[in-house]
Amino acid sequence: MDKMVRMQELVKVLSEAAYAYYAKDEEIISNFEYDRMYDELEALEKETGVVLAGSPTTKVGYEAVDELPKERHAAPMLSLAKTKEREELSAFLGEKKGLLSWKLDGLTVVLEYFGGTLQKAVTRGNGEVGEIVTNNARMFKNIPLQIPFMGRLILRGEAVIRYSDFEEINRKITNPDEQYKNPRNLCSGSVRQLNNEVTAGRNVRFYGFSLVEAGEEEFDNSRENQLLFLKEQGFEIVPFKVVTGETVVAAVEEFAEEIKTFDVPSDGLVLLLDDIAYGKSLGRTAKFPRDAIAFKWADEVRETVLREIEWSPSRTGLINPVAIFDPVELEGTTVSRASVHNISVMRSLKLGIGDRITVYKANMIIPQIADNLTGSNTVEIPCKCPVCEGDTAIEAVNEVQSLFCVNPACPVKKIKSLTLFVSRDALNMEGLSEATLEKFVGAGFVKEYRDLFRLSEHRDKIVSMEGFGEKSFENLVASIENARKTTLPRLLYGLGIANIGVATAKVMAREFDHDLEKMRNATPEEVGLVEGIGPVIAGTFCDYFRSEENMEVLERLLDELELEAAPEVQKNDMITGKTFVVTGSLTHFTDRSAFKEAIEAMGGKVAGSVSAKTECLINNDTASASSKNKKAKELGLKILSEEDFMQEYGLPPQM
Question: Which residues are catalytically annotated?
């Protein structure tokens, strides 16, 4: 192929991938593939002496999105030159001292303080212009809002969501198709949005990695002293090791061992010269500073043979291709399967059964196919769903082709309603994960809700299933028996009625005196009188109970349940019948749900948004510039801290 044509192709693909990554928080090609194509383009540019307009080798990112106000950085935020060779790190240092730290995988943010107070937070954006996210930054879990230093302080750092927090957030989302793909995307979306209440609930953390300005402070010409100064100011800093040319390779090995249990997403390391003056004297290229270099893990690549493409249906009808190959050792574990993501990726890899492929672990964690050495392109895309044998269709969303089952009665789609039904806020049946439900549906044990309470009839077959034994079966049965006694709000939420979430289910149950029959016979007009329920929700709610099929399923389910009586309301004249809004983090209650339940137990109502009917807004940050605070002020409503509210309205703390 002509070199110029290839360069044009590479610029196009890499630019699209970078735009998706920086502006839309999406990954359309793997990091492995991006790096390989980037290196190929860079080599071609050196060889030909030509750099095309728009080449990603001359850019540092993409323009910030329009929804947030923008600001130009005082100094450009450059990318770092990178290497995968440990020895290059030794050569980079020479006789100099360096700091080796994690290269965190989140969203770079610049913080500015003055008078000891956080004044501004700006994202990296395209390196020259970023987005102002000050209100969101104030919601970071570990960020100091006040610091001892009273002069102008500017620092850079990475906003991240830890793996443990990411998994906890996803665990609360019962629909796997709605779960977040990775911590980096979730963090970026949490910081770059307009409602700081969203940020507050995502456990975003900030780790400082560079001091930009600190007035007249002296640091003895040492980057290490700068970082220690930031630590003294209350910032968490990126963990680092002091290294020399002789010790840096060993330090890399230590990091490689630590990454196996490191809770913060990282995609490599950064080596920075400790000598500030010397580092500045080296200057910069058009894109990279010369006082630092990034180290990316050299992916451990293994060759193997593709044996099968497993087509894995989801409850939304999406059918994902999964590559099954001869087992290989990667990063200390044995792997034999990897997601191919979608039809577009499968076609680009030109997969065929028996092909020789290479596989690796992205960021040393997620198995991926790196390359297809054979490229037979013989995999057939199934025209029938592997579960229901209904027709399939290839649909394109944003130019990405995926395979779907178009049969609305496909059994796998039942998993959506069943997973919600057994979730923690519904019937709370422990031991019934989506994977387990898929097995039970596939085996014919479960066709509707009632069948979940009759799984003991299939004891022998379940015990013999992979992943099950006598003990796990006994625990499952015990959990199911505990779920028989439940409440009307839990049942309502578990039925999956359109637009009826946990909070709305509680409101509906309370408004209809926890009487299911009264609720079933209510008219749309009666339901529409409930606060927060508009005509659309009222219509879908009543339609559910007008469906003969739904009622037959519900009647059979009710034979298995014991609904608890309505909870006693501890009357509190200051709270009963009034509507409150709770926002932000709490100190006397474990979370906002517990606070809401305490208010509801005293006859009050809790809404999600401020309106003229709101009695008051409870927010520990009474002076924040959040949209709820602004709305409350516009309406002349009280804004009380949690403690002031408890004292004024006589609400006891959570026991």
Answer: 103
